[in-house]
Amino acid sequence: MQKHDGKLTYQALQSVNYLDMIFSETLRKYPVYPFLDRTCTKTYRVPGTDIVLDKGVFAFTSILGIQRDPQYFPEPERFDPERFSDANRGNIPRCCFMSFGEGPHKCLGLRLGYLQGKLGIAHIILNYRVHPCASTPAKMEFNLHSFLITPRDGVPLKLTRVTN
Question: What is the mean pLDDT of each run of 10 residues along the chain (164 residues)?
Answer without folding.
Answer: 84 89 93 87 95 94 93 95 95 88 77 89 93 91 86 92 86
